[in-house]
Amino acid sequence: HADKKDPEKKTKNKGKVFGYPLSIFFIVVNEFCERFSYYGMRAVLVLYFKYFLLWDDDLATSIYHTFVALCYLTPILGAIVADSWLGKFKTIIYLSIVYAIGQVAMAVSAIHDITDTDRDGKPDNMTFHVALSMVGLLLIALGTGGIKPCVAAFGGDQFSDSQDKQRRTFFSVFYLCINGGSLLSTIITPIIRAQECGIHSKQSCYSLAFGVPAALMVVALLVFIVGSGMYYKAEPQGNIMLDVCKCIWFAIRNRYRHRSKQYPKRTHWMDWAEEKYDKLLIAQIKMVLKVLFLYIPLPMFWTLFDQKGSRWTLQATTMDGDFGALVIQPDQMQTVNPILILTLVPIMDSLVYPLIKKCGLNFTPLKRMTVGMFMASIAFVCAALVQIEIDKTLPVFPSAAQSQLKLLNMGNNPITVQLPGNETTELPGTMASLDYFTFESEEIMVSIGTPAVTKLVSLAMGKRQTLLIPSDLLGKEWKCCHFYVLVKKKKKQSCWLGHTFTTTELCFFIYSFQCLKSITVVQDIKPNTASMALQIPQYFFITLGEVMFSVTGLEFSYSQAPSNMKAVLQAGWLFTVAVGNFIVLIVAELAKLPKQWTEYVLFASLLVAVCFIFSGMAYFYTYIDPTEIEAQFKKKDDEDDDDDDQKSKPQKAEMEMVKRGSVNENDINQDGAGRERKVMRE
């Protein structure tokens, strides 16, 4: 490319500040706002599915991980479009517009007042909200994934070849903005979500929790556009991934065409591409394929890692976030991960790894990755132990074949109640039974008082009900209600609620107490008592695993592949993340394990099995130096060129002789036979 030959042409007539292109400041601000937008929306997403769209845990988890998987598949498409068609600048602009539209759609989908025609605080047309949110998530996945491989590379393009130091500093600041944006958004958006807002009725403010990230994405787009006149915009020069795919496909087809035994075998199946492609390219692809082969077991790590935003957040909703002066929201626990990342990375690089090296242990990158996977499995064992503790504090709701009943004495005098299969229960005046009674039949006989008054009570299967017992057992109807119990909550603390009640049933409940001088508060379901602090160990181990697995994995991959194949490895790495999220989707929908802790143990066991497989693959892997291999090929090509030159010299001499001979033959025609004899001697 012409500009590559003249490095300074890149920044010619462009503004500079302290030796840095002015354009990079717009790119850095754009990246900070975009990461804030993405991670802020993602932090509250699974709770939006569960509490706004009213999906169960499995469906919420499945859709969440489908979205994350798409976010890691679309970067491949974005890289191809940018390098082969639109260029990085136009790709970022167009897909950022798509991105912003998706964020706005998510914010609008969370406004319950749009379809709340009866103004009861609940959307009446849930299909509208589900459809709009799914469209929004699809646009966000296309936008965030499409620009992911472009922004950092576009920033690197702003520097000339003589600005290596400034370029390295830029990338450090760039990735600091990524972590800063994600950390701040994960703290702020859950706080916004916990507020109550609405036009006609007040509900959890998911609309504003999505609206702030949407506004940040619009800001990111505007900032990037403002710097348009200062950017160096390289023309599309083709995408190496397409060349690699074409070469591999040609090798496969050519091998299939020559599958007969009459054709001699070749050392490597990629050698069948030699008829069309350069040997150096084939050698580079071989090096990449060796690394990609090691990627096969890696998705299982991401299967566990990305459940921080789904299963672990849902787990936190059943825990107590009160830390005294600080109250943590369930979706804020995710901030522990970036905080630990910023802490553990320098500790591991400057203290742990050098100490291991001094002990004489050969802690290779592949061994680090194996240990990192094992750390992630330990994290899920911790999550399982925490879940067991939580289950001890949670109410047991009825299955589809069961019904649960609580007794509520509406009178002032104590009564005795006899239920089928249970001992006689003494119920004080204006009090409720301490626990729910579980039955497996739709109708039961209930005997109350002395002398006993017996009536047949119908129950709804799969639900909790409360039997309202009037003071006049013979004069009033015994009523079975399905209702939310009014729970006195700590400020901003999550709690469990029972089943819904109708307006008339609530009025009946309150009216029954109007004749009393006081109202007795009855605790229907106990508040969460398991502290969110119990999740800190699992976050520590999963983050330690991330540092040893992810950071080391990328460094290892880049060290084992040619410089022009980094994009291919990046695409392969992102693909493993996408596959890992699809595995969560499959397990969540198909496993259907009765207890959540058993699912955590299942994932931990699968990753341990993968650890053994990966360690075996790593044992047989031979580390290479791509630069040295490329140099050997180039040296061989140079030697071949020299041999061609040596072979061409006699041919040139012979041609020169023939040329001279031709001239002498003309002389023969002019000078006679004596000259002819001289030529013949020559």
TrEMBL record:
Broad class of the protein's primary localization: membrane
GO biological process, one term: oligopeptide transport
Transmembrane segments: 20-39, 59-80, 92-111, 131-151, 172-192, 212-232, 287-305, 339-356, 368-388, 536-556, 568-588, 600-624
GO MF term set: symporter activity
Protein name according to UniProt: Solute carrier family 15 member 1-like
PANTHER family: OLIGOPEPTIDE TRANSPORTER-RELATED
Membrane topology listed for this record: Multi-pass membrane protein
Keyword Transport part of the UniProt annotation: yes
Localisation: Membrane
Family: Belongs to the major facilitator superfamily. Proton-dependent oligopeptide transporter (POT/PTR) (TC 2.A.17) family.
Compositional bias per record (Basic and acidic residues), positions renumbered to this chain: 646-659, 673-682
Keyword line: Membrane, Peptide transport, Protein transport, Symport, Transmembrane, Transmembrane helix, Transport
InterPro entries, A to Z: MFS_trans_sf, POT_fam, PTR2_symporter_CS
Region (Disordered): 634-682
Gene source species: Stegastes partitus (bicolor damselfish)
